[in-house]
Amino acid sequence: MASELIRQQTAGTLTPKGDRDYASEVDYAVERELRSFLARATPSIGLLGEEEGASGASSAREWTLDPVDGTVNFAHGLPLCGVSLALMEAKQPVLGVIDLPFLGERYTAVRGQGAYLNGEPIRVGEVSRLHDAIVSIGDFAIGDRAQERNVPRLAVTAALASQALRVRILGSAALDLAWLAAGRTNAVVTLSNKPWDMAAGIIIAREAGAVVVDADGTEHTADSSATLAAPPALVAEVVELVQTASKRPPG
């Protein structure tokens, strides 16, 4: 349903959301379609969507949705984008689905039941050193105080460039975490934490064997300031690098 909308339509009119940020017509169409479907299928559970906010019942559980994670990629014809949907409970995702329509990939996970790609089990890679790791990083900040907010991001990027095997910016947080879960990359460093961006990928990565933490190494929740994820043998080195680089004075 949602994937067909993305595959079959162009981005259409782009609605500005701030400095260098926008939503496409497809973002709104997918969100409205899924909001309507979930309201019928799970009437006791509300939904928080990136484009139109919260709706539905207030309860201990809530759907969180990014209708097109990677809108800029989508609008420019890059296939690295998809739908990200998670069910949240006590500030933690308990179910996640990431559908990448142009790549023909659907990632799924339920807490305690493992992670899957197109129905087949997946696991994180066994890399244990940054020297051998492909690390995907989140986009740089835009909008208010972007220059200030990018100081630690640039410092972390420079540190990773000097220590990791490779650094990648894929332009989709959902894809970052899904590919970590599938063992295609080895760590994720994102110095932000919006629930619609992260929640589905977090449960999928965790169920595939990754550890997901905040920037200080504590357990990741919806209130965390950053999202770091890696296999157990690698996560401490990632956290140490982020902490050290973030505190380094610019220049």
Automatic annotation (TrEMBL):
Tree of life domain: Bacteria
Keyword Nucleotidyltransferase in annotation: no
EC number(s) stated in the UniProt entry for this protein: 3.1.3.25
Annotated InterPro entries: Inositol_monoP_metal-BS (IPR020583), Inositol_monophosphatase-like (IPR000760), Inositol_monophosphatase_CS (IPR020550)
Cofactor(s) required, per the database record: Mg(2+)
PROSITE patterns, per database record: IMP_1, IMP_2
SUPFAM superfamilies: Carbohydrate phosphatase
Enzyme class: hydrolase
Keywords: Hydrolase, Magnesium, Metal-binding
Residues the entry annotates as binding Mg(2+): 50, 66, 69, 197
Catalytic reactions on record: a myo-inositol phosphate + H2O = myo-inositol + phosphate
GO MF terms held by the record: inositol monophosphate 1-phosphatase activity; metal ion binding
GO biological processes: inositol metabolic process; phosphatidylinositol phosphate biosynthetic process; signal transduction
Pfam family, one: Inositol_P
Protein name per the record: inositol-phosphate phosphatase
UniProt organism field: Natronosporangium hydrolyticum
